[in-house]
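From the methods appendix. Each design record in this collection lists the tokenized structure first, followed by the designed amino acid sequence. Records were kept in a plain field format so they could be parsed without special tools. The example shown here is representative of the layout used throughout.

RECORD:
FOLD TOKENS (442 positions):
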């Protein structure tokens, strides 16, 4: 929305973890180097923890990006898998077939495959994101898998990225053996006030900005205080502050704009008067969203464009906190449409996704249970929906997230395949899918 105004080529503060926007300051570059060393030196089980929104997923993506050519990565973006589901996922990745239902036989086949890879000079690493959500029984299986070795080094390197809750889970008596297997325990630090300024500058530079500073020092300080050092919060606040500056035709983000951004985020503590304003604006925004949904379902691209533009104008003029109020509850279908539209527009044509299904508009009641199933498997907030047509009939396409490459998308596809209602998914690029999307044009 504000890219051209600020001279940017891409969104600087999108929440999806993209390697081009990696910030190596605040110890993150050194942490990545330590991870790469631990993995390539065959140190076994590695744990990386941090606060929610501290940047663990970005570090995880960077590890996948920087692994040497001889290392084969198996990535689990959502670890809420049973023991058997984890074994099936490993079998899919290693391209082996089980001929027995016994877990011991399955582990033996996995070990044989890993030994063959080791003999061929290959190294395999299992990288688990959100590992704190892994069932205890599956964590015990992780311990068993970490025991597999060639006599000289581990056959399967395992890296667990998790929230701090994992440390508490590992204190449980039944998981003490797993705790003892951990060779490295690393932590992603939060950003201090000075590092927030460097972080903002790094992201803006990666997005194409080469001019003078956009954020004033007092705006940076305020964002740092509100964000409490969490990069995800910094991204949200910075994006909304730039939108506020853009709406006032200001080429600099000031303290005023940073405070408006704070009001729009859930980190704020608005007064009663502000709460009343937020509620009123939420009603207005919801009405616009429902109208957009209605027109989209009718396949009126021109009408959708007008409704969406009306929504954007309202958003610019008010810089309201309606979104922050809505974000504390499950998004409405209309909100999901608009959020999906923005994510699709911001995505590069080479971005990869998993097409789960296309559901006729007349059967839209099937969307809610489908979305719940996908959320449970890959984590909330990743689903994208878009209007399309199937054999001339209006329908909704459902996508399970955006990924920088096919390997990660295929890993998500494999997870979905284990659910009886989510089979027959396809890995496609956004560039291919855009040709069938009935999205409003700018």
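DESIGN:
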């Amino acid at each position: 929305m504000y890219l051209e105004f600020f001279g940017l080529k891409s969104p600087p503060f999108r929440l999806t973890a993209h390697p081009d926007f990696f910030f190596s300051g605040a110890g993150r570059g050194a942490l990545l180097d330590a991870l790469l060393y631990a993995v390539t030196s065959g140190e076994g089980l590695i744990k990386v923890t941090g606060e929610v929104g501290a940047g663990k997923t970005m570090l995880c993506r960077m590890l996948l990006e920087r692994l040497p050519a001889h290392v084969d990565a198996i990535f689990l973006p959502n670890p809420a898998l049973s023991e058997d589901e984890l074994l099936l996922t490993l079998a899919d990745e290693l391209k082996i077939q089980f001929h027995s239902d016994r877990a011991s036989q399955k582990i033996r086949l996995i070990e044989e495959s890993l030994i063959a890879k080791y003999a061929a000079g290959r190294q395999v690493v299992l990288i688990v994101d959100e590992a704190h959500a892994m069932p205890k029984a599956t964590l015990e299986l992780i311990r068993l898998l970490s025991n597999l070795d060639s006599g000289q080094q581990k056959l399967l390197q395992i890296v667990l990225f998790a929230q701090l809750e994992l440390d508490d889970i590992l204190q449980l008596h039944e998981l003490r053996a797993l705790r003892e297997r951990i060779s490295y325990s690393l932590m992603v630090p939060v950003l201090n006030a000075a590092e927030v300024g460097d972080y903002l500058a790094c992201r803006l530079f990666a997005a194409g900005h080469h001019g003078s500073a956009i954020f004033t020092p007092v705006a940076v300080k305020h964002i740092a205080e509100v964000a409490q050092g969490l990069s995800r919060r910094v991204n949200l606040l910075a994006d909304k502050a730039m939108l506020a500056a853009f709406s006032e035709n200001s080429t600099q983000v000031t303290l005023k704009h940073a405070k408006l951004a704070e009001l729009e985020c859930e980190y704020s503590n608005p007064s009663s008067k502000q709460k009343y304003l937020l509620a009123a604006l939420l009603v207005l925004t919801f009405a616009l969203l429902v109208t957009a949904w209605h027109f989209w379902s009718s396949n009126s691209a021109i009408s959708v464009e007008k409704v969406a533009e009306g929504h954007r104008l309202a958003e610019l003029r008010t810089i309201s906190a309606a979104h922050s109020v809505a974000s504390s509850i499950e998004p409405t279908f209309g909100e999901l449409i608009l959020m999906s539209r923005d994510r699709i527009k911001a995505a590069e044509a080479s971005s990869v996704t998993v097409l789960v299904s296309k559901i006729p508009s007349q059967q839209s009641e099937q969307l809610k249970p489908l979305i719940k199933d996908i959320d449970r498997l890959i984590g909330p907030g990743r689903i994208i929906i878009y209007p399309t047509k199937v054999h001339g009939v209006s329908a909704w396409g459902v996508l399970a997230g955006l990924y920088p490459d096919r390997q990660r998308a295929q890993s998500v596809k494999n997870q979905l395949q284990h659910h009886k209602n989510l089979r027959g998914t396809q890995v496609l690029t956004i560039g291919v899918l855009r040709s069938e999307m009935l999205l409003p044009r700018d």
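APPENDIX NOTE: Residues 285 and 315 are 8 Å apart (CA to CA).
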